[in-house]
């Protein structure tokens, strides 16, 4: 079986992977050709070969453009992961010059982390590595639960420590610390003082990020704090984003826990109050996690050092 798989790979033109990635990204032959630096007929020919291989149109005409077929949509994440891993594999062991490199880094972050680090990281890459590409994907709990099987395929993940990250082949470095605060609407008639008690939090209704359809998710960072406080929150709004949380607190009697840096940035604009979190909450420690396969990759090492340096200046 192993030999048959190897023969199958030998017979494939792996350059088609690169073409497929750009076609799935651009959903347009002309733009894909421009990104690849080849002619449009060459990409059209590759698309024809890909369609024969998968027995699927991949790009389907819709109005004046194209949309991905169901199979193409299914392939997107796999192609991104495989191309990224292949680039890292063949880049390992070579000197890395960020000033001339076209390396792509794929990183999972929460939207809160993007708020804190995103503009700084973007500016550094533009100045030091203008040809480097960055693919930032929003982290999801489903990915974090399967970190052992997927972190090999990306450059890393920014997230607080969790037991599921305690794996022999996963390493991390601390970036920065943060603390939880409470956010309420400035006109909330039930909050008159400058502090909230745990008893008040237990009675209020909540906006909560990354909660399942049913039940309570103690693995989510905010949920863990409430479990430690002994609070079973009455959740009225669930969102898949930290930055969405304050928008659904504004103008209501709801409450939420939020990272302090994010809370203080949005509070004036949304008419919110930022109050200390009672109950002596745990600090939030954001770390960068990666697979040990990349320890010897000079490009990866450079990227880690950039993140650590940026975080030190927060």
From TrEMBL:
Gene Ontology molecular function: DNA binding; DNA-binding transcription factor activity
Keywords in alphabetical order: DNA-binding, Transcription, Transcription regulation
CDD domains to which the protein is assigned, alphabetical: PBP2_Nitroaromatics_like (cd08417)
Official protein name in the record: LysR family transcriptional regulator
Source lineage: Bacteria, Bacillati, Actinomycetota, Actinomycetes, Pseudonocardiales
InterPro entries attached to this UniProt entry: LysR-type_TF (IPR050389), LysR_HTH_N (IPR000847), LysR_subst-bd (IPR005119), WH-like_DNA-bd_sf (IPR036388), WH_DNA-bd_sf (IPR036390), YidZ_PBP2 (IPR037402)
This protein's record includes keyword DNA-binding: yes
Boundaries of every HTH lysR-type domain copy: 12-69
Heme found in the keyword field: no
Gene3D superfamilies per record: Periplasmic binding protein-like II, Winged helix-like DNA-binding domain superfamily/Winged helix DNA-binding domain
């Amino acid at each position: 079986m192993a030999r048959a798989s190897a023969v199958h790979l030998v017979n494939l033109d792996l350059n088609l992977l690169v073409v497929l990635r750009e076609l799935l990204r651009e959903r347009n032959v002309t733009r894909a050709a421009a990104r690849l630096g080849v002619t449009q007929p060459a990409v059209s020919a590759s698309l024809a070969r890909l369609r024969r291989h998968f027995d699927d149109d991949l790009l389907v005409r819709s109005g004046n453009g194209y949309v991905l077929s169901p199979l193409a949509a299914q392939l997107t994440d796999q192609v991104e992961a495989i191309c990224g891993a292949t680039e890292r594999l063949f880049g390992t062991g070579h000197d890395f010059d960020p000033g001339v490199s076209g390396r792509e880094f794929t990183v999972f972050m929460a939207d809160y982390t993007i708020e804190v680090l995103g503009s700084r990281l973007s500016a550094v890459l533009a100045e030091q590595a203008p040809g480097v590409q960055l693919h930032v994907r929003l982290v999801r709990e489903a990915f974090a639960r399967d970190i052992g099987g997927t972190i090999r395929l990306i450059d890393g993940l920014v997230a607080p420590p969790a037991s599921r990250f305690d794996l022999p082949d996963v390493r991390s470095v601390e970036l920065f610390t943060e603390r939880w605060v409470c956010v309420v609407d400035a006109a909330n008639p039930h909050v008159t003082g400058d502090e909230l008690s745990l008893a008040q939090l237990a009675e209020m209704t909540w906006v909560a990020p990354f909660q399942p359809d049913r039940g309570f998710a103690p693995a989510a960072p905010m949920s863990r704090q409430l479990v430690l406080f002994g609070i079973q929150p009455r959740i009225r709004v669930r969102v898949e984003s930290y930055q969405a949380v304050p928008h659904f607190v504004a103008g209501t009697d709801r409450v939420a826990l939020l990272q302090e840096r994010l809370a203080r940035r949005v509070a004036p604009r949304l008419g919110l109050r930022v109050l200390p979190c009672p109950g002596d909450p745990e600090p939030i420690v954001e770390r960068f996690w990666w697979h040990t396969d990349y320890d010897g990759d000079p490009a990866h090492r450079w990227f880690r050092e950039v993140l650590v340096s940026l975080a030190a200046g927060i």
